[in-house]
Amino acid sequence: MFIEARLVFQSYIPLKLEEGMLFLRKTSMRKLKTNIEYYQVFELKDIPRDIDSYVAINGWPVEPHIYSITLNPDDHAHILATPDLIGWWDEEPDAVYEEDEEGLLRDITVTEYNYLLENFEGNIDIQVDEAEFKKGIVKPIIYMEKVTLSVPMIKDNTDDEEDDDWDVTSGDGLDDEEDWDDMDDDSDEWIHDHPKDKTDYDPE
């Protein structure tokens, strides 16, 4: 199952600039006679000669993180995915495939990042373990060392009456970032069997 989360780009200071690093810039467009501002991500194509001037204009590079969404802005948001886990992009998260059909998982790109920033203010869907979610614990599924992401979809919770009293955006039960390794224990064999991948990825 997928739940809605927040895509956040956080800056960092590297030892040196490298091609492919991501940078964040503010842009604007006119829609219905209204000037709308939003952020876009772009990749560094060439190393600038004057790095100090480049950083003064564009800021330091950024990395994507995914956080839980809280109803109360004063509540602490929990990290759901660090940059090294981001991520697979699922074109059709609700699709069901036959045995001989391939899924649509691929690496997320700058195109998807910018689409989410422009159209959903950075909101994003992330796949979580449904059994743990029903216990009030948000545990992202780690498949082949990455989380699976998608465009935010309208959720139908009409059949989940037992979950009505639980705040799905609170992040209850999540560990802080320093306890992230707890998600990779050997008992979680299900994380290697993604429903949209027909390859045998079971570890030896």
Determine the mean pLDDT: 78
What is the number of beta strands? 9
Number of helices, counting only DSSP H or I runs of 4 residues or more: 3
Strand order of the largest sheet: 5-4-1-8-9-6-7
Shape: globular
Strand content: 25-35%
SSE pattern? EEEHEEEEHEHE
How helical, in percent, are the residues? Answer: 10-25%
Please state the CA-atom Rg, rounded to the nearest Å.
19 Å
Low-confidence stretches: 157-192, 198-204
For the terminal residues, how far apart are their CA atoms?
27 Å
Helix and strand composition category: alpha+beta
Largest sheet geometry:
7 strands, mixed
Oligomeric category: single chain
Question: What can you tell me about this protein's structure?
Answer:
The structure is a single chain. With 204 residues, the chain is α+β, with helices and mostly antiparallel strands. The protein contains three helices and nine strands, in the order βββαββββαβαβ. The strands form two sheets. A seven-stranded mixed β-sheet has the order 5-4-1-8-9-6-7, covered by helices on one side. Strands 2-3 form a two-stranded antiparallel ribbon. The longest helix is centred in the middle third of the chain and has 11 residues, at 110-120. The two termini are 27 Å apart.
